[in-house]
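User: My collaborator sent over this chain with a note saying "see what the structure looks like." That's all I know about it. Can you take a look?
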Amino acid sequence: MKLYGSFTSPFARKCRITALEVGLDDRVDWISVSVMDETATHPNPLKLVPSFETDDGELIVDSRTICEYLVESGNGNLARPDWADRTLVAMADGLMDRAVSITLETRRPEQDRSSDWLVRWTAAIRATLTELERRRPDTFTPGAISLLCALGYLDFRHAGLNWRNNHPDLATWYKHTSQRPSFTSTEPPA
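Assistant: Without extra context I'll predict from the sequence alone. Here is the result:
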């Protein structure tokens, strides 16, 4: 099996953590791919990371789908998500999507940036954090992995948002849960 992704992608990190948690890390080859490198060989025609190739050569795209495949193929340490957990996955993934959009937008030349989109995405992040404060999980689930990666990405790329200030319960949950070896071993490079 092959997992294609960037070490800084929160979506690829989510797949790496899932592979570790379900005991498949020794069977998955990690292939670093930059979505910014137009010359890079990339199996996903959308040029998005992560993407995944099964042992049979089947292409799986989208981190949610990849993680579901890994959970089904692994040792059973992570339960398949119920509807509440799937909603948590979707919200955390949406948070990551908005944060990545801000990252990419701020890399554009200043005169080309859309301040309207930056304001809109930041407001969406803040509103989602308020909802996630209420939904933080009690057990380690696929939704918990997504939430960890979303909050970790905010720390990595958007520390100025100071998300902990307005979400103390979520900050406490993150401080405790982020100590898992699967999370600490997949920290993005500085």
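A starting point for your reply to your collaborator: The domain at 83-184 is CATH 1.20.1050.10 (Glutathione S-transferase Yfyf (Class Pi); Chain A, domain 2).
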